Amino acid sequence: MRRMPGIRIGNETVWPRLSQRALGLVLAWWMLILLMSIAAAQTPPVESGRGYPSRPVRMIIGYPPGGPTDLTARLAGQHLSETLGQQFVMDNRPGAGATLGATLLSRAEPDGYTLMLAANGEMAISPNLRRTLPYDPIKDFAPISRIGTSQLVLVIHPGVPSKSVADLVSLAKAKPGAVNFASAGSGSTAHLAGELFKQLAAIDIVHVPYKGAGPAMTDLMGGQVQMLITGYSAALPHIKSGKLRALGVTGEKRLTAAPDLPTIGETVKGYQVTSWYGILAPARTPRLIVEQLQREMAAMARRPDMIERFLALGIEPEGNSPQEFSRQIRDEIAKWGRIVKLANVPLE
Fold this sequence. Notes:
By secondary structure, this protein is an alpha/beta fold. It folds into two domains: 57-150 and 276-343, D-Maltodextrin-Binding Protein, domain 2; 151-266, 3-Layer(aba) Sandwich (D-Maltodextrin-Binding Protein, domain 2), CATH 3.40.190.10. Helix content is 42%, strand content 20%. The chain has helices at residues 20-42, 68-84, 99-106, 120-129, 165-174, 189-201, 213-221, 232-241, 287-300, 304-312, 322-343; strands at 7-9, 12-14, 57-61, 88-92, 114-119, 141-156, 180-183, 206-209, 227-231, 245-249, 274-282, 315-317. The strands form two sheets. Strands 3, 4, 5, 6, 7, 8, 9, 10, 11 and 12 form a ten-stranded mixed sheet that branches. A two-stranded antiparallel ribbon has the order 1-2. Helix 2 packs across helix 9 and helix 6 (189-201) crosses helix 11 (322-343).
């Protein structure tokens, strides 16, 4: 048998007594083991999704504390902490119409330990308002589940002499530019909702942007601005206390929690705006982690205690699939594009 070339190991040369075929099989096996070891070293330990979560999870909120998005995130975080046995830490990162928070998520490690409670402002409205965004709402995120939709409510300072939407429209027409409407920031749902109201009611009201719904609400109660269209959940305590007056809700139908409150569309024909909330992860987050989180969101939407709490905030709970949520984001981008054009809002 032909002698094979020696293999150098340390200071010695080993002369295997193997055929070329056998030696080839041995070398191929060694090479396979080596490649598998390299791949395992380079693969994040959460790639399989097993054992997740093994440490606290960060939940980015692109708005300040106190607004509807913040309240929704805290409910979701409470449920996830209870069911998954790890703390879900709320991280409020307001700024630039919540696009700051979305930017942070798009750059986070796709390991399941950074999530975001997203709303239609940064995901569907801003792509239609800004010439450039530091993230792609379709490509840079892994949708997990839409967890709720809500109507907004038009509230005014009690000092404004209007008892109905019709009264407010009459006041704005009699005094052009005298009514200032606050929003959670340029490009936010509240901003577009106000611009659409202005356009369809044919009135002249002035936009005053804030860094979130919480600061906007504070200044409204202080009388610095006269009007705000915001989440029903955030406004409800102030409506009950008399610090704010509610004139109408933004949906197609009256709100179950407030059946005596008319829709804006009953006075301003064609007016309809709703908001939604959902959980996102960075793109390329392991599929098993996405599926695990989605199952938890679906379970939350079936919990009687959580349903009661969401409905009390004016939010209809959901828990749909990543695929459904992804389609909804695409549809919402198209819908808000039409609203931006109708409201004549300039690009930034």
